Amino acid sequence: MTRLSLSSAILAALATCNWAISEDARLLHDDSECSAEDGCTLVALQRGAVKRTHDEEAEKPRSDRPTKSFTSSYRRPKMIADSPASKFIVNKDCEKPPCSGQVHIQLGGPGEMVVVFASQPESVAEPLVRFGKSAESLSSSAKGTTFTYSQLMYWNHQLFDPVIAGGREMSTEEAAKLMSTDTWAYDKRTGWKYPSYRVIGPQQVEERMGWYKNPGERYDSPAIHTVVLTGLEPGVEYTYQVDNDGRKFSFKMPQEGQHYPYKVGLVGDIGQTPVSNSSFHLLQGLKPELVLLTGDLSYADGYYPRWDSYGIMAEPLNARVPVMSCPGNHEYASAEAFKSYNARYPMPYAQSGSVDPNYWSRDIGPMHVVALNSYAASGPDSFQFNWLKKDLEAFNRKRTPWLVVMMHAPFYNSNLGHLGEATVMMGDLEELFFKHGVNVVLAGHVHSYERTWPVYKNETTVCAPVYINIGDGGNREGAYAKWLPGEHGALEPTWSAFRQGAFGMAELELSNETHAQFVWKRNACFDNGEVDFHPENCSTSGDNSKNALKHDDISWIVRSAEACPNQA
Ligand SMILES: [Fe+2]
Ligand SMILES: [Fe+2]
């Protein structure tokens, strides 16, 4: 088995030309000496400098050596700027640019819908969206802004880090497997391969191990256009069309204030597998006013073309229904740093007095929705805590009787996956939730479904929030099926009402100001490494929950202003 040594990694990192590196770490440029074929070897790594020798020449006393330093055996990797790795595709049906695609909408301020779409850089000079109440006559238009960004493909770090950290080296076969996406960037139903579909062999691994100097290792985003449609009337259907795209999409502007029944789709940890597709398709079928997505969207994980393929996958739902989200760890880790997420999925943070795009609030129909960031400080001195406190003190129960909070990492979770990860944030915020009578707390992160009884500080009590984990949207990491009771005598908590390690999505229908019906539906199971799309009778291998065989969960969430002053 070929091994990728640290030396080869360092060699690969010196990407732009033949560099000679002297013992005292000064870089000397020399094309004349040893070539890759003549036996130069790299022998040591000292204080960041690469010391290399050329046969016995290197053993001679310093005074006897040639004055020129040696060139490295390193050969610059093949430039792969034209490879699909660094290219975005804005629209899978685009045969001849200019095209736009990845169209999606989310709520802005009152009466506003924010349209985001992507195009080739040169295609749209000043982004424009035409819209109107009639599909035949798009009589209004709005202009917007354009943004692009560049980022280094993160897989470099995944290859290097184990070596630097003293861990075992990664084989080229393992690296190739890591860099390939052929097992999941593929729609089995239609046979269509997502733009991020790649098969990498061992030979290509080393060719691709450049770093920031290599344009082929950089991702340049498409032009991302953001256009805010204003003055929209609640409950009215609008049709719109973006620049350079022949398609028209329609959406219904969600109702504002107390309109019942009010239907909301819920999902988390989506990814872009056939199950993800299925979850979005089911959500679209619900015809909800909007969808709340509890983070972990594309699973790009630093391989940024996946944000484009996610945008294409999400378009059928997200161009027609506003999807409102909070960020997950997959928007943050692997050098993501929220950059792609914030560029593409703007939430109404400024309108709600937040100084961070990753936590926001908005009155939506009869709900006041608060989205939090599990990966920002939440202590009493933090921006997030103080913004939340102010927001909860100010919202109007008369206008929005239902208070819904969403975040990524769950406070209450009895799955062994990610158990206790939100303990610090829970300590910071749970009292605030209870004091202000939060009705429902949505989360994801744990790739399974769980609903609690109303619970506060681990005790069930009627005036506390119901916690719902819906991280079962269908991403490539599979379903988490191992539940408490676990090792060391940990018991199944009494607050856990229903749990299952499968894939699914949910619907929250607010019937009036006191009752809401919540329905979770399974859409697939994960059986011995394969997805089973028979939701009526499938089960996930090893799921030790007592609800493992139930295909749905229906419950009522009751808000009692009389019994619970905190909810009045
Ligand atoms: Fe997560
Ligand atoms: Fe996740």
Give a quick summary of the entry:
With 568 residues, this protein is α+β, with helices and mostly antiparallel strands. It has helices at residues 6-13, 155-164, 172-179, 202-207, 274-286, 305-318, 339-344, 383-394, 423-435, and strands at 19-21, 27-29, 41-46, 49-53, 100-107, 113-119, 128-132, 140-143, 145-147, 150-152, 218-220, 223-229, 237-242, 249-252, 262-267, 290-293, 323-325, 360-364, 367-371, 402-406, 440-443, 449-452, 455-456, 459-460, 466-470, 496-500, 503-510, 515-527, 530-532, 552-558. Residues 1-86 and 157-167 have low confidence and may be disordered.
Notes on the structure:
Residues 464-531 form the Purple acid phosphatase C-terminal domain. The protein has 568 residues and is of the alpha+beta class. The protein folds into three domains: 17-64, no CATH class; 80-253, Sandwich (Immunoglobulin-like), CATH 2.60.40.380; 260-297 and 345-366 and 404-425 and 439-567, Metallo-dependent phosphatases (Purple Acid Phosphatase, chain A, domain 2, 4-Layer Sandwich), CATH 3.60.21. It is built from nine helices and 30 strands. Strands 15, 16, 17, 27, 28, 29 and 30 form a seven-stranded mixed sheet that branches. α5 (274-286) packs parallel to α6. 45% of the residues are buried. Residues 1-86 and 157-167 have low confidence and may be disordered. One fe (ii) ion binds next to loops.
